[in-house]
């Protein structure tokens, strides 16, 4: 009886040891699986990072190539401009005063736009809006090919308001806008009466530059 009891106790002890070992083995396997999963995830991240780094290198190379191309184009443009200036410098030696003045005028461009549209040669325009802008702009060439004195003679004489007068209405505001090569005067009109008209009087100089038939621009509001 005592012997059987000892055997039973021994069996229980052995079973306890086996269960403990199995649990430890299972825990070890779970830890190993977690470690393996983490390593796989890390490898994926490393692969993605490497791909992104390669793409970044490509973009950086593309930017460098574009900068090199732009520098080459700018160099070529400067060389062509220098050649053009040299050619013009030689050519103007054979021009008389009138021809030089015409050349200077060609380097200054003038335009009047009403609500975004240029004025037709007949000098008449219709609007279907009571809010609009009149823009009188001057654009000069960036190519400096003439002596300053001759070049400046190509511009309109005096001030801009000597060449344009709006008759019959008053603008809400007048703004001046200056850019690198463009100067514009913006006349803003708001809430004008429908079925009315007004006129813009321009100088002979401006009429010639705009290619208009007369010195009056008629604006009709429907």
From TrEMBL:
Q: What PROSITE patterns does the record tag this protein with? A: PROKAR_LIPOPROTEIN
Which residues fall in a coiled-coil region?
A: 35-83
Write down the superkingdom of origin.
Bacteria
Organism per entry: Fervidibacillus albus
Instruction: Say if the entry is tagged with keyword Coiled coil.
Output: yes
* The keyword Signal is annotated on this UniProt entry: yes
Endpoints of the signal sequence: 1-25
Assigned keywords, A-Z = Coiled coil, Signal
**How is this protein named in the record?**
Lipoprotein
